[in-house]
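haha ok so turns out i had the wrong file open the whole time. this is the CORRECT one, sorry everyone. sequence first:
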Amino acid sequence: MRRIVYAGTAFYTGDALAEALLEYARALARHDIGDTVFVPGRTMQGQVDTIELLIGPASQIVSEPVELIGSEVEDPALVARLAELTARLEPRKPAAEPMDGEAGATGTDGHSGFDDLY
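then structure:
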């Protein structure tokens, strides 16, 4: 379980949720944009609730491990959704395309891959 401190308040949520939230916040900050996220969590009073967070470039979020009695707050669908949103914001990596009819690049030695540089 993780304790999330944000905008002068705190709540508890599961490890996977906290990690996905921070990764998404980091990706948003890289693009200088924000988003509102609803995260299940346990309030400081112990009640399970949905916490609304506006995250973006200026967000200062702290996540720290805690030992609490009770079950961990989980939401696999939200973790997957945050991972998907984060991936959409990641830089695209160009992929090499084979030349006409070739299965892939071959080096001067006839093997797939790059030539020895030395």
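The mean pLDDT is 86.
again sry for the mixup
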